[in-house]
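== Folding the chain ==

***
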Amino acid sequence: MVRHARFVAILAAPLLLGASPSGTSTLKGVYTEDQAQAGAQLYATRCAMCHGRLLEGTFETPGLQNRFIVNWSKAPLSELYDYLGRAMPQFAPGSLKPDENAKIVAYLLKANAQPAGAKPLPADTAALKRILLEPVSAKAALKAK
């Protein structure tokens, strides 16, 4: 009975975290360099006026590095994607197209030392639910800069 309970707990853990058993991590490279570059251009025109050219934030608007990644870590990437799509940019919430939103998320991942991969980040909430946002180690973050 105890063995059965442990097995069920192991299978249920990814679901409780919002990821499926076949999910992946942002540490495995879930966006492409080209996608992040396109996201940087969108960020410059749609986000930088509030969050700063260097993602540093202002007194009124949070920065999008360091604490930002901690706040979103261990959550499915779909949560960040959905939030941006619903609430940003502040002057025109919900105006980002799904592919623009995915490009900006890719840029934010790159800016937070997440590795790039071979496939672009999908612009699909269901697919993004299977990607867990995990912070990189301090050593890897320094190496990426």
